[in-house]
Amino acid sequence: MTKTSTPAVLYICASHSQDLPGVERGRAMQEGRDFAAKTGLRIVAEIVDQHGEPVPQRRAGWLTVREMAERGEVEVVIMRWPNALSPVSKFRHPELDHLGRHGAQLCFSWAPPLSAMTGDEDVR
């Protein structure tokens, strides 16, 4: 990527499984990095919060993301899916508005397989 690529922050909010520590987090991070590479985004920071708190503003990592957007350090926030921001939609909307007011947008790195969206098992 070039220095002129769009600055982005990769935000991960994942649980810590005792059976498979770090697997969910690692998968989300790799998907985010792949998404950034594919779309011409330059990741300037990777921020991780532990899953469980539904109110984004009660998470230290998310507050850092907000501050980066406010300072104009990032134009894109990459996260795996909407529930990483909050499993409760009414808590998501104010955060999306806040990012937008500061010129940042939210992108999701996880794309379900086409077969999951169409119900087909064999999509070519």
If you had to describe this structure to a student in words, what would you say it looks like?
The protein is an alpha/beta fold. It has one domain: Rossmann fold, CATH 3.40.50.1390. Strand 1, helix 1 and strand 2 form a beta-alpha-beta unit. It is globular and about 35 Å long. The C terminus is likely disordered.
Write the layout of secondary structure elements.
Layout: E1 6-14, H1 23-39, E2 41-50, H2 60-70, E3 76-79, H3 82-85, H4 89-101, E4 105-108, H5 114-118
Parallel strand pairs: 1-2, 1-3, 3-4
Question: What characteristics describe this protein?
Answer:
four-stranded parallel sheet; 124 residues; 40% helix; Rossmann fold; globular; alpha/beta
CATH class category: Alpha Beta
Question: What is the fourth-level CATH superfamily?
Answer: Resolvase, N-terminal catalytic domain
Poorly predicted ranges: 114-124
What integer is the average pLDDT? 86
Given helix and strand content, the structural type is alpha/beta
- Proportion in helices: 40-55%
**Element order: H for helix, E for strand:** EHEHEHHEH
Beta-strand content: 15-25%
- How many distinct helices? 5
Quick rundown:
This protein has 124 residues and is of the alpha/beta class. The protein has 5 helices and 4 strands, in the order βαβαβααβα.
